[in-house]
Every structure is written in structure tokens, then in C-alpha cells.
């Protein structure tokens, strides 16, 4: 098995002898056998031949950028280099011990950064993999970096597929990195000893290139500076916010300003059409409607319709000018109203939650560090966002970081930022880091109980000194933010077990706020009404009586997240003329979980009952998903991590 040029796996790798014969055929002007040499490789060999290169001969001296030339190239590509760095470190960790290098090259094929193990190459060959070396096809013939640039797509070039025999010791996988407008910015590559070839490397490299593109898009269209709309799209609501989401930037006048590749695929666009299109050309919903949605409730996912195609879920973010340009009301009045509404909007009648909200309202102006505790999906982040919106800091950023979602090396770079001085003599910073982005605003650290101990020590230092020092030893910078942390874990038990620093616990826990689990709340009906009004504005929709009773009795292992995803599915299935949500509007597995249970008062259910309901639901979902945990989690409307945790809890 081997991946073809676009990274898909094709069945057979040609024998080296076959490639040698094919290369001879190329030199003799004969046709290349398509079964030995794929179309991308054949085109690349032809280009190499036309460039006057000889496969076996001595390579004419390949140009190598001088120190000042490299510094200038790095300066020109500052944004790309800064965003690529943490992703490259992550890739280098994944490929550690595999005798390979992670390389970032510019559009001219010049190596800008290289990380990893150079021991697998001879001293003479090392220089070719260092920053400054050139890997364009023109100078080195077919190779993953040069060929990915020439073809504009991901490619694997293995051993003798390299045009020059002297490069046959390498196996390389490379993927282009594109700007949000489709312009080629550079190439990410993993090159290693040809004996260490692994078919999954290309997938890893392509995902890493997507991560860089995602960060570039988010920086260029950051809602604080970009005066337009950002649409996050996916066929399923759970896909929004993940690496698989489509990203679309829309100018205030409706013209499309940027996208990622996932959005192009979802909308049936290509890069040239993107530049000519307006949002009305691709979506059935006009810009004023989108603007209205984003002003009224920006974080609520909605359904939009692609012309002649699928329905997609969308979550929108607006730049400040749009968010503030509501009618004739002065901005301060609008912000004031939003501030009051943010916490009040969460109060749907449950007394325990109301008590939490009242405390939150009093604490919001104080900037005392808060710890929000509650089960996964219970609404901890939503509460933290509402507190920020109700605080004097609401004019600044709310920065959320999930400490459980990223590998340790990435969270460190993400939180603290890093210097690019490590690889050039230039003085400007590489990436600011999320802590500094939260300056003046609120830093929300989700799943703080999962933060690795080494990072806890660094975070403690930041909280004590109120200064952050970027990785790579830059200057300490003063920071001022409101810290809100959240966890589903018992942090005291974590301290006992030696997994959480006690001194950090006291620093971040100025006050604990508890968010009740959905099954313990008494306001399910009010929640249903509020969410249905948001999902189907202007429509009067009820829930059928027997279904409502079953929903009340259900244990809701995924809490509000699961409720929201259940209602989104139901609304998507509801016909325009229907006004009652019934059993047939649920996905099958939830309907099955709900049916066998007699309607009982969930608030009166004993913990053991709830545990067994939860256990049954999980078992059924796993059975239905054929044991696939990701699929079972999707069916339950909870994350994979939560499902693993619940499996542990319910089998305890
Ligand atoms: N008050 C609410 N009204 C409607 N939906 C809500 C509300 N609070 C939360 N949700 C829904 O639940 C989802 C999860 O909420 P949130 O991220 O705040 O939970 P969490 O407790 O932080 O979860 P986790 O611990 O898994 O990070 C939200 O995306 C939203 O769909």
C-alpha cells in the first residue's frame, strides 16, 4: 500500500527495478508505463528532464541562501513561520525516533525551518536539509517539497521516485499550505530515511498543514480586527470548532473574502470562484438575515442552505463594527443591555442555577479568580462567557483554552507564546500566546484538572508575577486578565493523588461556582421553549406529551450539550408545516433509550438508578455503533473523552 500524490492510498508500490527501467525509458524518450509511474510523478520527471537535470550525474551546485537572505525570507514569511512553529514541534514529537526531519519551505522551495533528527544522513547531505537549502524541482528534480509546490497538492516521493539518484536515500511526504484566499504560502514536509517509510505520514503532514491554515485564517479574520462575518460550517453541529470545520470570511457588503479548503468543498466552490462570489451566490440566506442572527445570538448554531445542495450547520462571529451597529442605539446602551442579558438569559427557572447566577452577577465586577464545577456539557463555558459579558472587561477578549484537547507541547506554546528569535536574529515575536491575548479581558481555562504538572508550575508563576515569558526565552511581559477555570474533576482528590498543585489550586479558586447537571434541574420545559425559539424564530413549536415525559425522566449523560444537539436534530427533521416535535423527530438511538423507561420524576431518581440508566444508554449506543467509541459518543451527543470517563464511572 502507498499513498498516491494526493495522499490517497493506492494498492501497490512499484518495484525499484521497475522505476529504474521507467527512468531509462524517460531518458530515451519512450512512453512511461502508467502502472509504474503515476501521472503526477510522470509530469514531475518530465519537468526535471526539461530543466536539464541528469538522474545519475553530479548535481550542479544547488543554491543555498546566505544568512542575510534567509533572515529576509523569514521576515517576509513571518506570519507563516510563526504559525507553523508549534505545529512543527508537535509533528517532530510524533515522528521522534523515526530518523526524520520536519521541514517548512517557502514557495521558492527554500527551507525556512527544520526540526528533528539529522543523524540519519551523512555529514555531506546534512547541509541540504538545513534552513537555506533549496528544494525546487528546477534544482533538485522530483522531490516532495518541489513537486508539491509544482503540482499544488500533497505528495509522497519515496526513494527511487526521486529524480536524482543521490536523493533515493530519502522518503518524503509534503503538503502545500494555502492562505485563506488560496495563495500558496509554502510547504510542510516530513523527510526521513527511505527504510523508515510509513504510509500514514502523508495523512499526518496534511492534517498539520490544515492546522497551520486554520490558525492563519483565524488570525487574519479575528473578530476583534476583521470588520466582517466569520462563518464556521459543518454538516453536523458537533463538527463546528474542530479541525474539520469549514471557515468562510464574508465582508460587510456580502463579498466572500476568504475560506479554508473544507469550506470550499462544502460550498462547491474553488479558489477562483471564491474571489468572484458573494454570500448570496452560495447560500440561500441573505446577508441581512445572517447579520441579524449574529447580533441576536452569535453562539447559537443555525442551519443554512447551500444553493442546490445540502443543509449545513453554521456558527457565526462578527467583527466589532457589525456587532455594535444595531439601529440608532448608542453602543454603550447596547453593551449595557447585552451585559445584563448575558446572565439573565441563562436563568430559566431552576433554583440551584439561579443561586449560582446571582453569585456570578455579584462576582463579575470583582475579577476574583473563579473555579466553575459541573459535569461535561452542563454549561460551564457558557456561564463563563456570560460572566465575562457581564463584567467591566466585556470590551476586551474572552480567550478560551481547553487544557485537555491539546498535547502538552502545543498547550505550552499556545498559552505562553514563543519567540522566533530562536531561529533568526530578528527581534519581533513569533506568537503572542493566549495569555497575552486575554490581556484586559478574561482567560478561560477549561478542563484545568487535566493540565500537565509542568505547565501548572509555569501557570502558577504567571499568576504570581502577573507576567508571561514566551518560550525560547524572550522578555517577560506584564499581563492583566480575569481567570476563570472549569473542571469536571474533584481537584482536591487530584491534589491528594499528587496530580494537581495545591498552591495553584488556592490561586485559581477564589470562589467555586457549581453548575447543576441537567437531570437535577427543574426547568427542562423552559429550556426547551427557549432553545426552540432560538432555533426556529417566529414559529410556535411544542413537544408531544409522552415524549416530554420521557425527556423529563431521562438521565441526560451529555447534559445541555446533548439536549441542544437533540433539539437541533429534531428541528432539522421538522417539516415547515409541522408544529409538534414527536418521537419520529429523534435519532433512533435516543428514541430507543427513552421508550422503555416509565416516566418518573428525574429529580427524585436515586444515584444508582441514574447510574444504571446511564450504563444502559452507553451500552446500547456502543452496541449500535458496533463498538466504535467515536460513533457511540456522537450518537449520545457527548465527546469521546466524556464517554470514556462515563464508561469508567458507570462500571465503577
Ligand atoms: N444555557 C444554555 N442554553 C442552551 N444551550 C446551552 C446552554 N448552556 C450550554 N448549552 C449547550 O451545551 C453546549 C456545551 O456547553 P459548555 O461548553 O458551556 O459546557 P461545559 O460544561 O463547558 O462542557 P465541557 O466540560 O465538556 O467543556 C453548548 O455548546 C450549548 O450547545
Automatic annotation (TrEMBL):
InterPro entries in alphabetical order: AAA+_ATPase, AAA_lid_NorR, GAF, GAF-like_dom_sf, Homeodomain-like_sf, HTH_Fis, P-loop_NTPase, Sigma_54_int
Matches recorded under SUPFAM superfamilies: GAF domain-like, Homeodomain-like, P-loop containing nucleoside triphosphate hydrolases
Residue ranges annotated for the Sigma-54 factor interaction domain, each copy included: 352-572
CDD domains attached to this UniProt entry: AAA (cd00009)
Keyword Nucleotide-binding: yes
Pfam families: AAA_lid_14 (PF25601), GAF (PF01590), HTH_8 (PF02954), Sigma54_activat (PF00158)
Keywords: ATP-binding, DNA-binding, Nucleotide-binding, Transcription, Transcription regulation
Domain of life according to the entry: Bacteria
Official protein name in the record: Sigma-54-dependent Fis family transcriptional regulator
Amino acid at each position: 500500500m502507498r499513498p498516491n500524490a494526493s495522499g490517497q492510498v493506492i494498492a501497490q508500490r512499484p518495484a525499484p527495478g521497475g522505476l529504474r527501467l521507467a527512468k531509462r525509458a524517460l531518458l530515451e524518450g519512450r512512453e512511461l508505463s502508467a502502472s509504474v509511474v503515476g501521472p503526477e510523478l510522470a509530469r514531475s520527471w518530465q519537468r526535471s528532464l526539461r530543466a536539464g537535470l541528469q538522474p545519475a550525474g553530479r548535481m550542479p551546485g544547488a543554491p543555498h541562501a546566505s544568512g542575510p537572505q534567509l533572515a529576509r525570507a523569514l521576515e517576509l514569511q513571518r506570519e507563516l513561520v510563526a504559525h507553523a512553529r508549534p505545529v512543527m514541534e508537535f509533528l517532530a514529537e510524533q515522528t521522534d525516533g523515526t530518523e526524520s526531519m520536519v521541514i517548512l519551505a517557502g514557495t521558492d522551495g527554500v527551507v525556512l525551518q527544520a526540526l528533528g533528527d539529522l543523524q540519519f544522513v551523512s555529514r555531506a547531505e546534512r547541509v541540504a536539509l538545513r534552513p537555506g537549502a533549496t528544494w525546487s524541482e528546477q534544482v533538485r528534480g522530483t522531490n516532495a517539497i518541489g513537486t508539491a509546490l509544482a503540482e499544488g497538492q500533497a505528495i509522497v516521493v519515496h526513494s527511487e521516485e526521486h529524480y536524482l539518484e543521490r536523493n533515493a536515500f530519502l522518503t518524503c511526504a509534503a503538503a502545500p499550505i494555502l492562505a485563506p484566499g488560496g495563495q500558496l504560502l509554502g510547504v510542510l514536509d516530513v523527510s526521513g530515511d527511505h527504510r523508515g517509510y510509513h504510509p500514514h505520514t502523508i495523512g499526518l503532514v496534511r492534517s498539520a498543514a490544515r492546522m497551520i491554515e486554520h490558525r492563519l485564517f483565524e488570525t487574519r479574520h479575528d473578530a476583534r480586527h476583521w470588520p466582517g462575518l466569520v462563518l464556521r460550517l459543518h454538516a453536523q453541529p458537533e463538527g463546528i470548532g474542530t479541525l474539520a470545520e469549514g471557515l468562510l470570511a464574508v465582508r460587510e457588503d456580502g463579498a466572500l473574502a476568504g475560506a479554508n479548503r473544507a469550506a470550499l468543498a462544502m460550498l462547491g466552490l474553488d479558489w477562483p470562484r471564491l474571489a468572484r462570489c458573494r454570500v448570496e451566490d452560495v447560500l440561500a440566506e441573505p446577508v441581512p438575515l445572517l447579520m441579524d442572527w449574529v447580533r441576536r445570538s452569535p453562539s447559537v448554531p443555525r442551519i443554512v442552505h447551500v444553493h442546490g445542495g445540502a443543509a449545513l450547520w453554521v456558527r457565526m462571529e462578527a467583527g466589532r463594527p457589525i456587532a455594535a451597529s444595531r439601529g440608532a442605539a448608542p453602543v454603550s446602551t447596547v453593551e449595557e443591555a447585552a451585559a445584563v442579558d448575558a446572565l439573565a438569559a441563562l436563568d430559566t427557572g431552576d433554583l440551584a442555577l439561579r443561586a449560582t447566577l446571582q453569585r456570578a452577577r455579584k462576582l463579575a465586577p470583582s475579577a476574583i479568580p473563579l473555579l466553575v464545577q459541573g459535569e461535561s456539557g452542563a454549561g460551564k463555558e457558557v456561564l463563563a462567557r456570560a460572566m465575562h459579558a457581564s463584567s467591566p472587561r466585556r470590551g476586551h477578549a474572552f480567550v478560551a483554552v481547553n487544557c485537555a484537547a491539546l498535547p502538552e507541547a502545543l498547550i505550552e506554546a499556545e498559552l505562553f507564546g514563543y519567540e522566533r528569535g530562536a531561529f533568526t536574529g530578528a527581534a519581533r515575536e513569533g506568537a503572542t500566546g493566549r495569555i497575552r491575548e486575554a490581556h484586559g479581558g478574561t482567560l478561560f481555562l477549561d478542563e484545568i484538572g487535566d493540565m500537565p504538572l509542568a505547565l501548572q508550575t509555569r501557570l502558577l508563576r504567571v499568576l504570581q508575577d502577573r507576567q508571561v515569558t514566551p518560550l525560547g526565552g524572550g522578555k517577560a511581559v506584564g499581563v492583566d486578565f480575569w481567570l476563570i477555570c472549569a473542571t469536571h474533576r474533584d481537584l482536591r482528590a487530584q491534589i491528594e493523588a499528587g496530580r494537581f498543585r495545591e498552591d495553584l489550586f488556592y490561586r485559581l479558586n477564589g470562589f467555586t461556582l457549581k453548575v447543576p447537571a441537567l437531570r437535577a434541574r427543574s426547568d427542562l420545559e423552559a429550556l426547551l421553549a427557549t432553545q426552540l425559539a432560538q432555533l426556529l424564530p417566529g414559529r410556535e413549536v411544542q413537544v408531544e406529551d409522552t415524549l416530554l415525559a420521557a425527556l423529563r425522566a431521562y438521565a441526560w449523560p451529555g447534559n445541555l450539550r446533548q439536549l441542544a444537539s437533540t433539539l437541533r436534530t429534531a428541528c432539522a427533521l421538522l417539516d415547515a408545516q409541522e408544529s409538534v416535535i414527536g418521537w419520529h423527530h429523534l435519532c433512533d438511538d435516543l428514541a430507543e433509550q427513552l421508550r422503555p423507561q416509565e416516566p418518573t420524576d428525574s429529580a427524585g431518581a436515586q444515584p444508582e438508578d441514574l447510574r444504571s440508566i446511564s450504563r444502559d444508554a452507553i451500552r446500547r449506543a456502543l452496541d449500535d455503533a458496533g463498538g466504535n467509541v467515536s460513533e457511540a459518543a456522537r450518537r449520545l451527543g457527548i465527546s469521546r473523552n466524556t464517554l470514556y470517563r462515563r464508561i469508567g464511572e458507570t462500571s465503577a
